[in-house]
Design a protein that fits this description.
The protein is an alpha/beta fold and 292 residues long. It has a single domain (31-283), classed as 4-Layer Sandwich (Metallo-beta-lactamase, Chain A), CATH 3.60.15.10. The chain is 30% helix and 21% strand. The protein has nine helices and twelve strands. It has helices spanning 3-14, 24-30, 73-82, 100-103, 106-113, 124-129, 214-227, 243-248, 263-283, and strands spanning 37-40, 43-45, 54-58, 61-65, 90-94, 116-120, 149-151, 156-159, 162-168, 177-185, 188-194, 232-234. It is globular. 43% of the residues are buried. Bound molecules: zinc ion. Zinc ion binds next to loops.
């Protein structure tokens, strides 16, 4: 068999003939380049228009959270450099969760920066294999990325006076990690949250479940998020924290629009309502993933 025929045969075995790649329309929107910008204090946005990456700058080197899509890595690197920072100054690379739109660029970013990659124990197997076994993201594998450190809920990552805490809330993925840190700006201490996600996003939550405890994990995550607060709520997709609207409101001398303590409770309320609706729909036999 000719090599391309062999490759085609393998592909046909792996993907049913009728299957189409998920998130095709979303992926095109997520991949639009975004000019990097200062968020607040030592936090900068270096991601795409639709998938986030944040750079936290410290005197001892920098921390990068999330790698975007596989095709995002070169843009994230250019954005870091456009702000005047060196790739080699990225010392730690973090991840919100092991979906291709936030982990796809990690392997290249790790190789190009030399940063140590830190993953949660729940998602490390997916990141290290490049494959998550459930949900629509299971159809899009990514370059495997080795974790230099594996963290569990409550573990901390410190560098140059910055300390981030891993809040691991299984649901959206098994090791979904919301990173939090205090930030002092003009004498005021703010709670910053780099949110993981809590959307269903095509995860099977009825019938054959994505994984056995997924429904109770979602419930526990909603309950826990209701007890948390965030003055500065940042998330893996710009739409989840109204990035474009806030950026348009940035003006010298005006209050920083990224300070908004209502974002987290609003998001949790909407996400829980959406979860209940999707659960009922899937329990009635609806497909877990419905393309847009
Ligand atoms: Zn996701």
């Amino acid at each position: 068999m000719k090599p391309f025929l062999a490759a085609a045969a393998v592909l046909m075995l792996a993907v049913p003939a009728h299957a189409e790649l998920p998130f095709v329309k979303e992926r095109a929107e997520w991949s639009v380049p975004q000019k990097p910008f200062h968020v607040i204090g030592n936090i900068y946005y270096v991601g795409m228009a639709g998938v986030s990456a944040f750079l936290i700058v410290t005197p001892k080197g920098n921390i990068l959270t999330d790698g975007g899509l596989p095709e995002s890595a070169p843009f994230i690197e250019k954005n870091i450099q456009a702000l005047g920072f060196k790739l080699s100054d990225v010392k730690y690379l973090l991840n919100s969760h092991a979906h291709f739109d936030h982990s796809g660029g990690l392997a290249k970013l790790k190789a190009d920066t030399g940063a140590k990659f830190i993953a949660s124990s729940g998602d490390a197997p997916f990141l290290e294999s490049g494959h998550i076994p459930y949900g629509p993201s299971s159809l899009i594998d990514t370059a495997p990325v080795k974790a230099d450190r594996v963290v569990k809920d409550g573990d901390r990552v410190s560098l140059g006076g910055v300390t981030l805490t891993a809040n691991v809330m299984p649901s959206h993925t098994k090791g979904c990690t919301t990173w939090t840190m205090p930030l002092v700006e003009a004498g005021v201490t703010y709670k910053v949250m780099f949110f993981c996600s809590i959307s269903v996003a095509g995860n099977p939550i009825a019938g054959k479940l994505a994984y056995p405890t997924i429904v109770s994990d979602y419930r526990a995550s909603f309950a826990r998020l209701k007890k948390m607060d965030a003055d500065i709520f940042l998330a893996p997709h710009g739409v989840q924290f109204h990035m474009a609207e806030k950026l348009a409101r940035v003006k010298p001398g005006a209050p920083n629009p990224f300070i908004d303590a209502k974002e987290l409770p609003d998001m949790v309320q909407k996400a829980e309502a959406a979860f209940d609706k999707d659960l009922a729909r899937q329990q009635a036999g609806g497909a877990a993933y419905v393309p847009r």
